Amino acid sequence: MSKKTPTYFCSSCQATFFRWAGKCSTCHAWNTIQQIPDSPTGRFEASKQGVPSRTKTYSDPIPIHLVQESQWERISTGFSELDIVFGGGIVPGSLVLLGGEPGVGKSTLVLELTRQLAKSGKVLYISGEESAVQIGLRAKRMGVFQENVLLSSELYAENIARMIEDIQPKVVFIDSIQTVIKQSLENQAGTITQLRECTQVFLETAKRTGIPIFLIGHITKEGSIAGPKVLEHLVDTVLYFEGDRLNYYRLLRAVKNRFGAVGDTAVLEMVSNGLKQVTDRNSLFLSQEMAERSGSVLSSVMEGSRAISVEVQALVTKSSFGQARRMAEGLDTRRVILLSAVMEKYLDYPLGASDIFSNLAGGLEIDEPSLDLAIAGAISSSYRDKAFSGRIAMFGEVGLSGEIRSVGQIGLRVKELVSLGIHKIYLPWGNYAEAKPFEKEAQLEPLKHIRELKNI
Asked: Is the pTM of this model over 0.85?
């Protein structure tokens, strides 16, 4: 008989190996590789014991035209902006992953949600990082005194699942998923195996009970939520809570949503007693005074299912160094470099000897090709030190040969700009026919090539 080759596995990521090593080549963890114990009846022996039973253990498939939509109603968060991010409200039985950097205000957001949701039912708050006293102090500062808010410091996933089934709350918050462990596993809390297995327990609980569960996850050093994207395929919705700790404003962005549009953003303001939604975005992303000045152009971008007006700014100055600098805040620096090269070729601007600084007002970070024309217009205006006359806006993608390409959702973009009182909109020629219904409200100027910027 041939000798059986031992098999090893990593207790952190469950990767299998044929020999022992001190470091896992998959997750790069040390001292986690263990030998798989031999079972009395191996996998190959078990398959030879007899013919498998033909007893049907599955349910019959259903034709797709006979599938009926389940009768459920979305749960309102109490904030109209957050409801839009969720696609109309929280879906019962959904599993939501809320991620953000430490200190950005995730726990404050959770308490703000419990304040609103507890008005119509019980809310279970599982906290493995803070004690009930610490949460109580924050709740007192925010004025959260509802009797329906239940606190627990349970760390075992199995016990939390039983607690959810017994209490039957309206919504469950688990802060954070990195602190929860499954008793049947020997791994430490926060490892990939624990994260995946605990999330699977909560996924089954949410689908079985119809109770939405929120998992709070920290952003790791690699920039991922609770590990290298090990949870995003398991959950229904992934939300990022972004913002500078030195700034009052926070952005809640949906990067995955099985029940709504992806990319919708809610703007929240951090105040002394919690968070409040900001409904007037124009006061944040646009200058307070719409005076004519060089290097400033308005544009419109798509954030999920909504169009947002933004202000693109540029500053062109003579370079004091041997190599000109290109810097961007909120925009893709590589896109600014590309556009400056296109403008230097087709507009005959000697930008190679000038520093170009570009900015998206309001602290937004957007990487959308539709901003190309606005960036080029702002650079052209700053280089000539000449402001565009009247209240104008631009959007369109610029190709390497200088052509202005069409963009999507033209109706929503134009409608948003018209609501701000924009009198003239420069747009790609390919979108002109689609935007013609708005000609009575604003003057539409179609452009074919970037050379036409010289005539504006």
From this structure: no
